[in-house]
Amino acid sequence: MLKILRESLLNAPIVHRGKYHYFIHPISDGVPRLEPELLEEVTEHILGMVSKDFDKIIAIEAMGIPLATAISMKTGVPFCIIRKRQYGLEGEIKLSQETGYSKGELYINDIFEGDRVLIVDDVISTGGTLVALMSALEGVGATVTDAIVVIERGDGVSRLKEMGIDVKTLVRIDVTEKGVSIEDIHE
Ligand SMILES: O=P(O)(O)OC[C@H]1O[C@H](OP(=O)(O)OP(=O)(O)O)[C@H](O)[C@@H]1O
Ligand code: HPA
């Protein structure tokens, strides 16, 4: 299972973003090209791991979007994108996002009290993005039915666990300047 994901990760090139070893992969970058077979493998696997009682899918710009699109088309549930752009609509919520290599703002629109949301994203690393998003959703009064991320590296998942938040992932990797190694993969 997850054969295409496994092999593509082992072949991922590494570049430096400051001190951060950044792997480049179709799921996390759209580079090299994202083959439909990989997207199908990953999204089918996600649907086997989450409960089905969500009424909105939330994706974080940019690389949560292909995952959310595929899941939306398979389930008939709409998706909302947490954008890096401000719209200024009433009720818009601003989040500060900090990752291992970047800082910026994210904006939530069209999520309300009582919504049951599935969060999907491509990578979790420091967990900074999901910590900020989860606390904003709690403030709104939305229920997160599952938070699922394809690729896990670093200590983000354990950081969220200490806060009482479970994040599911398909694969855990280690990244050095030599490349990616697989520490654990969901079967
Ligand atoms: O766990 P963290 O350290 O917060 O890192 C994870 C975030 O980093 C990436 O986002 P990025 O801003 O690079 O966006 P992209 O999807 O446009 O590549 C990824 O898509 C996550 O949202
Ligand atoms: O190393 C990475 N590669 C791609 N996307 C990412 N998002 C956080 N870390 C990474």
Automatic annotation (TrEMBL):
One of its GO terms (molecular function) is guanine phosphoribosyltransferase activity. Pathway: Purine metabolism; IMP biosynthesis via salvage pathway; IMP from hypoxanthine: step 1/1. Its EC number is 2.4.2.8. Signal peptide: none annotated. SUPFAM superfamilies: PRTase-like. Pfam families: Pribosyltran. GO terms for cellular component: cytoplasm. It is found in: Cytoplasm. It catalyses: GMP + diphosphate = guanine + 5-phospho-alpha-D-ribose 1-diphosphate; IMP + diphosphate = hypoxanthine + 5-phospho-alpha-D-ribose 1-diphosphate. InterPro entries: HGPRTase-like, PRTase-like, PRTase_dom, Pur/Pyrimidine_PRTase. GO terms for biological process: IMP salvage; purine ribonucleoside salvage. Keywords: Cytoplasm, Glycosyltransferase, Purine salvage, Transferase. Residues 52-171 form the Phosphoribosyltransferase domain. It is an enzyme of class 2 (transferase). Catalyzes a salvage reaction resulting in the formation of IMP that is energically less costly than de novo synthesis. Belongs to the purine/pyrimidine phosphoribosyltransferase family. Archaeal HPRT subfamily. Homodimer. This is Hypoxanthine/guanine phosphoribosyltransferase. It comes from Methanolobus tindarius DSM 2278. The gene is hpt.
